[in-house]
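Hi Y.,

Following your request, here is the sequence exactly as I used it, all 188 residues.
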Amino acid sequence: MDSGQLIGIIGGIVVVLAIVAVAVMVSRKRKVAADRNRAAEMREQAKADEFAAREREAKAARAEADAQEADLEAERLRQEARNRKEEAESVRSGAQEQLRKADEVDPDVVTSEREAESAQMPTRGDLRAERATAEPAAGTPVPGQQASGEQAMGQQASADQRSREEVTRTDTTPGPDAAPREDRPRNL
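Below is the corresponding structure, written out as C-alpha cells. Let me know if you'd prefer a different format.
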C-alpha cells in the first residue's frame, strides 16, 4: 500500500464522516423545528382547553347564581303564599264570625245555643203526651204505675209519635212573624 492510497482512504473516511455529521446536524435541526412546532401546537391546544375550561366555569357560576336566585324566588313565593293563606284564613274566620253573629240575631235561624235550650225545654206536645200517658216524656214510668214491657213500649212509641206530630204542627204553623223579611235572607 502506498501512501497515496492511504491518504485517499483517509480522505474518503473524512468525507464520509463529514457527510454523516452534516446529515446528523440537519436531522437534529429538523427534529428541533418539529419539536418546536409540536410544542407550539400543544401550547395552542392547552390555551384552547384553558379557554373552554374558563367558559365552562363561567357557565357553572352562572348556573349556580341562577339556582340561588331561583331558590330565593321560591322562598319569596313560599313566604307570599303563607301570607296569603294567613290572610285567607283571617278573612274566612271573620266571615264565619259574622255569619255566626247574623245567625244569633236572626230569629228564623236555630243556633246551637237555641237548639240546646229548646232540647232541654219540653214542647207542648211533650207535655200533652206526658199528661195523656201519665208518663214523663223521657220514657221513665211514673212511680206506682206498672206496665208490661210491650205495652209500655207501645205507649211510649205512640207518645213519641204524637209529640213529633205536635212539634211538627207547632213548628210549621205560621205565626205573625213567619214571613221572612226582605232585608234578611232566610236560612233553610
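Helices lie at 3-105, 112-120, 124-133, 149-172.

Thanks again,
Q.
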